[in-house]
Amino acid sequence: MTPELEAKQHRIAALAGPIRPIAGNLPIAATTAIKITRALISAGPSNQIAPFSGGSWGGQVPAGGPRGLRSFDRPEKRPDDPFAIRRLGAELDRWMTSTIATGQVDTGVGELDYDEAYAMTLSNLDPYRIDHLDEIAHLAIRHGAGNCGYIASTAFALMRHAGVAPLDLILILPRSGPRFFRNHTVAVLGIPDVSGNQKEPPFDQWADTAVLADAWQEEMSMPASVLADRWPRDTYHYLSYARVRPRS
Predict the structure, then answer these.
(1) Per-block mean pLDDT, blocks of 10 residues, the chain (248 long)
(2) Which helix (H) or strand (E) segment is 242 a member of?
(3) How far apart are CA 222 and CA 26, in angstroms?
């Protein structure tokens, strides 16, 4: 491990502080990670416009969270703005800011010393994969923006450094056809050691017990079972890119 990566990981671990005392309560740990992620990714997602009521992004930073964080403000509602023109303008401004900043994250990711073809040959437990997510999370936090992959990597890194386990970064990819605008990435807590391929854990072995942390879409944790409605299993693979095993 390089000193540069170690410094980045120390930074992520410090930001994960509010999650650490509740790491064993998976739904609450996931919700706390989502809130911190949304505060850190202050410009919000580049591949969503007005994702929530009023185009808001962020929300309240958890007690004990890092100082100096400022969530994206909900556009002000006024009687003299009946058609929400100002609200729309604020959201378009956020989106443009995020698009520019996400481009900077893209550039940083492209400059990392990372061999994707090699990574795909490794176990999802391998430090090569997990360290790469820390690098992505550091870039997303630094620039305050990202797409679903960068946002999910940030939530995953925060929870990993807080001691949450078991924990997976799940890539949702179409079984056939183009991937563009047909893929997603989420963090999932509570997937057990399964019977079968741990890099594509059978959904029926964790759907009813695992917890979804999708900071790109949700303001709080959800049951992992909702994935089947959003990304049907007959159309999409759920692949585990990185994993932290259950504590022994």
Answers:
(1) 93 96 96 94 80 44 47 57 68 87 96 95 97 98 94 98 98 84 91 92 95 92 93 93 94
(2) strand 236-244
(3) 11
Which three-class secondary structure state does DSSP give residue 28?
helix
Alpha helices in the chain (DSSP H): 3-15, 26-40, 85-110, 116-119, 127-143, 148-161, 227-230
CA angle 184, 13, 164 (to 5 degrees): 60
Answer whether 156's CB lies under 8 Å from 137's CB: yes
pLDDT of residue 80: 73
Burial of 248 (0-12, 13-18, 19+ CB in 10 A): exposed
Q: Which residue has the tokens 């994250």?
A: 105
Q: What is each CA distance from 40 to 4, 25, 43, 151, in whole angstroms?
A: 20, 22, 9, 10
Q: Are strands 167-174 and 222-223 parallel, antiparallel or unpaired?
A: unpaired
Give the pLDDT score at 94.
83
For β-strands 236-244 and 211-213, DSSP reports them as unpaired
